[in-house]
Amino acid sequence: MQYTIKKLTECTIEEAVMAWNRGFEEYFVQIEMTPDLFFNRMVNEGLSLNDSIVAFDQKEPIAIVVNGFRTVEGKKTAWNGGTGIAPEYRGKGVSQLLMEETLKIYQENGVEAATLEAIKENEKAIRLYQRFGYEIIDSLVFLSGTPKGTNVNPIQAESIRPEKLALFPFYKENVPWQCQWQSVMSGEAQVYYSKSGNPLGYGLYKKVWNQNGQLEKVFLYQLKLLGEVNVQNINAILAAITENADNKVIFTIINGSISYPVIQYLMDLGFNKTTEQVQMLKKITE
Prior knowledge:
- This protein has six helices and twelve strands.
- It is an alpha+beta fold.
- Strand 2 and strand 3 (60-72) form a beta hairpin.
- It starts with a strand and ends with a strand.
């Protein structure tokens, strides 16, 4: 069967959203899009309309891959921000066609490293990526919980714009795409200091308020501590982020590396694992 590949710039927004929503039907996590949500995600996460593709069966959009490019640690890096194939077309060669076209686009753009994340249980997708040279480099988790720390000793926190984090030598640049400051420009950041003025770490996050003006949720994309990781420091940082809100605030940790001590401490504090992913990397050129 012959399929046609088009760039997103050659598609209508309706075709793109249909390809996305059909592509992620019966998926492990429900991620249905509206045109507004789809457009906002492309913009907010720095994804490229010209380098993302949709597969068609005649005039019917049946699959999609969205791609973005950034320079990370001096290397031109690509991110596959979602590959979806309509259920009735899975196992019919569409995934191979999409991967071949995507890697061709990467080569044309001079990409040196290609990254993506896959749900841990999605073994078929992981095997597909491995066939095309991707390797698992980390395990990532989404956590959800409410800080229970009381009488927390305050920590000195300086609020800054997310893009300012890149100016600090201790900022970690090579993290999952959605956790890089470029993907969280509509959020907030803090740098934490000891009483003597030495940096202790930083946080990168977004806040959500309810209709009554109360802080309701915090999406935490990075929390890095430079020295000792302990419950006291973590509780102090979470309190600084919420500005010691009286109400319970739900924190969601986005793509935290399971090997990072902060993640284990958060689970010890009662945070629950909601989703687990693998982070994958393909080295295209040295």
